[in-house]
Amino acid sequence: MGKKLNNIYLIFLNILIVVYNLYIWLSVFTEKVIVADDLKEAYSARHISKPYFSYIYSYLDSSNMAARPVSGFVTGTLVFLSKYNESIYLLGILFFPLSLFAVYWVAQKKILSKELASLITLLYSCSLIGTSIQFSPIMLNSNLATIFFSLSIYYVYVHKNILFSALFFILSILSYEIFLPLILLNLYLIKENKNRIVFLLLTIGSIVLFRKVIQPAIFAHSYQRDEVGKIFELKRVVQVTIFTAKLFFKDIFIGIYKGLINLKNLHIVEIFLALIMSSVIYKVFSGYDFKSKLKDIKSIGLISLISIILAVCVFYVSSYIPTLFGFDNRSLGAIRLFYTLFTISGIIYLSFKLKFGNRTISSLFAGLAFLLLITNMSVKNAWIYTSQFNYKMFHELSKTLKAENIENGVVCLRYDMFTELKTNPHFILREPIFYNNWECRMLSEMNGIDPKKVFIFNADRQTKCERVFLYKNGKIVREE
Question: With 50 as the cut, is the pLDDT of residue 358 above it?
Answer without folding.
Answer: yes
